[in-house]
Amino acid sequence: MNSIGGAVNLAVTVIRSRHSVRKYKDTPIDDKIVKDALDCAHLAPTARNEQPWLFGAIRDRDTLKAIAGLADNGRFIANAPICFAVFGKKDAKYYLEDCCAATMQLILALQGWGVGSCWVAGAKKDYAEDVRKLLNVPEDYTLVSLVPAGYPEEISIAKKKPLDEVTFFDRYEEEE
């Protein structure tokens, strides 16, 4: 196997092994892993190379509890060793797409280190502005996603639809 094939297989393995994790061990995430994940996030593809993002890494227990209290589907954030916050610059035309790409790269980088995470919605949520204010992020940014992370205490694997139910080639045709 050539080096390109090996790299592809490693990427596929990381992607296929990723699952949402909501229960974490009480083990801190090493700074090297945090910086690596942030670096991977900031290397995400971005329209016109605008890079309209700002990334936060929150470890302070009181701040994590405050975020958990704001996020309607993120109560478990309070017990995560760290939570990443991805903000997009509101005036950038494709900030949502760009920041979603960055969020996914962040999640995959964490998975590569064996750190589980869960994408918690931020964009279009009522609490987005409250989280922005809590973290003292400038007004020209809006919350796109929260990514609590830690070493998995428990993993539950959601069943995915079969590939042939969600794909088509060339043109979509209804089956009769």
Total number of beta strands: 7
Give the distance, in angstroms, between the N- and C-terminal Cα atoms.
Answer: 43 Å
Largest sheet: 5 strands, antiparallel
Briefly note the structural class of the backbone: alpha+beta
Rounded mean pLDDT is 93
Shape field: globular
| Total of DSSP H or I helical runs spanning 4+ residues | 5
- Fraction of residues in helix: 25-40%
Poorly predicted regions are none
> Order of helices and strands, N to C?
HEHEHEHEEHEE
Q: How much strand? A: 15-25%
Report the radius of gyration as a whole number of Å: 17 Å
Question: Which SSEs are present, and which pair or pack?
Answer:
Layout: H1 3-17, E1 23-24, H2 31-42, E2 53-58, H3 61-70, E3 82-89, H4 95-112, E4 116-117, E5 120-121, H5 128-134, E6 141-150, E7 152-154
Antiparallel strand pairs: 1-7, 2-3, 3-6, 4-6, 5-6
Helix pairs in contact: 2-4
How would you characterize this protein structure?
This protein has 176 residues and is of the alpha+beta class. It is 35% helix and 19% strand. The chain is built from 5 helices and 7 strands. It has helices at residues 3-17, 31-42, 61-70, 95-112, 128-134; strands at 23-24, 53-58, 82-89, 116-117, 120-121, 141-150, 152-154. The strands form 2 sheets. Strands 2, 3, 4, 5 and 6 form a 5-stranded antiparallel sheet that branches. Helix 2 packs antiparallel against helix 4. The longest helix is centred in the middle third of the chain and has 18 residues, at 95-112. The protein is globular, with a radius of gyration of 17 Å. The chain starts with a helix and ends in a 22-residue tail after the last strand. The mean pLDDT is 93.
